[in-house]
Specification:
Strand content: 5-15%
Low-confidence stretches: 1-10
Number of strands: 14
Structural class: alpha/beta
Strand order of the largest sheet: 2-8-7-6-5-3-4
Bound molecules: pyridoxal-5'-phosphate
Shape: globular
Length: 410
């Protein structure tokens, strides 16, 4: 397997950004560029032949690549190799965890039906819980979050203690994809474990930026995905503690311990492992570097737009190093996004579009923001390719862009 430690190979280069007419890519939480070492490994592997389930030598070679990749990923995230279940990404891993663990629990005696989660989860969890509520007798229990979006272990304990035997599972994300709030996952998992309740966490946003460990938290299941770490889109994993047996969502050839059928995507899995290995080696240094750039970005935005409100936790342990999320009073987030896009700056709004109408961010609403604040928000997310020039590019135009968006909204 290719090693990745040579050189500090960020992507894209300033030349590549200039060629794509992009002066700043500040949307790493949506997807981050592939690391060159991961791209090279994937490209090499695409030229190889073999289904890892085949018994001949080409199949055995492919199997070896998969198992070496599994070992690297397991080691990076405090799991045993047998606890890594490859999936097609974060959405599938969340579905397997939430639906599969719910189904496994409701097949057991007593039929616990309550699913404890937060209203700030990614839709991959949120909509699974809603689906189970509408189609399968689940009772959703939305744990209240504070103004920063964090849920306290005491809140979880109180919700469980109302009726511990009725709780099927708990699912709380490690770090929020919009506002970057980091949850006290080890403490929350401990509360669930005291009652022998399965605990799942969507660690998609945390896995590239924070030390994430299945073993150290004692969680039952963690979701990760490659394309937020510098690997390709379309591959991820559920880290599933030994003994946990979710009911499969996909049935077929019985791959991945019968938990997730489907032929394994060997090139993507190999690139995923290389990205994880590279990101893990660099994580501590990168977190510092990216947090410093993020702090400068916050300072530049506040200097240009003094009434901009930073949503979420204060920079520090309670916030992802690469996240800055603002509400701009008197603006529509979509208008801001398009004005920035026209100036070569890519970022994101938290709002979703339903039938052509922008909806306010469900995350900000759950944190107690009013509709106007939830609609007029933008997320800037930084990552391994971010440099000072990109932060300065945003700083040089954000004041004028907010002015224009305010005039348009009047
Ligand atoms: C927190 C979170 N969970 C799940 C997902 C879905 O992952 P994937 O795109 O691999 O399906 C995302 C992607 O945006 C995410 O941010």
């Amino acid at each position: 397997m290719s090693n990745t430690s040579a050189g500090h190979d960020r992507a894209p280069t300033p030349e590549a950004r200039a060629a794509s007419a992009l002066s700043a890519y500040l949307d790493h939480a949506a997807t981050t560029p592939m690391l060159p070492a991961a791209l090279a490994a994937m490209t090499e592997e695409l030229a190889q032949l073999g289904n890892p389930s085949s018994l001949h030598s080409a199949g055995r070679r492919a199997r070896r690549v998969v198992e070496e990749s599994r070992e690297l990923i397991a080691e990076a995230y405090g799991a045993r190799p047998s606890e890594v279940i490859f999936t097609s990404g974060g959405t599938e891993a969340d579905n397997l965890a939430v639906k599969g663990m719910y189904w496994a629990r409701t097949a057991a005696d007593g039929r616990p039906r309550r699913v404890l989660t937060t209203a700030t989860e990614h839709h991959a969890v949120l909509d699974c819980v809603r689906w189970l509520t509408e189609h399968d007798g689940a009772v959703a229990c939305w744990l209240p979050v504070g103004q920063t979006g964090a849920v306290s272990p005491q809140t979880l304990a109180a919700a469980i203690e109302q009726d511990p035997a009725s709780v099927a599972l708990v699912s709380v994300m490690w770090a929020n994809n919009e506002v970057g709030t980091v949850q006290p996952i080890a403490e929350l998992a401990e509360v669930a474990a005291e009652h022998q309740i399965p605990f799942h966490s969507d660690a998609v946003q945390a896995a590239g930026q924070l030390p994430v460990s299945l073993r150290a938290t004692g969680a039952t299941a963690l979701t990760i995905t490659a394309h937020k770490i510098g690997g390709p889109v379309g591959v991820g994993a559920l880290l599933l503690a030994r003994g946990a047996q979710p009911v499969p969502v996909l049935h077929g050839g019985g791959q991945e311990r019968d938990v997730r059928s489907g032929t394994l995507d060997v090139p993507a899995i190999r690139a995923f492992a290389v990205a994880v290995q590279t990101a893990t080696e660099r994580r501590a240094d990168e977190a510092k570097r990216v947090a410093a750039l993020r702090d400068d970005l916050i300072a530049q935005v506040k200097a240009a737009v003094p009434d901009a409100i930073l949503n979420g936790a204060a920079p520090g342990r309670g916030r992802l190093p690469g996240n800055a999320h603002f509400s701009f009073p008197g603006c529509e987030g979509d208008a801001l996004l398009m004005l920035l896009d026209a100036r070569g700056i890519a970022c994101s709004t938290g709002s979703a579009c339903t039938a052509g109408v922008a909806q306010p961010s469900h995350v900000l609403l759950a944190m107690g923001a009013d509709e106007a604040r939830a609609r007029g928000s933008l997320r800037f997310s930084l990552g391994h390719s971010t440099d000072q020039a990109e932060v300065d590019a945003l700083g040089s135009v954000i004041g004028e862009v907010v002015e224009r968006a305010r005039r348009a909204a009047r």
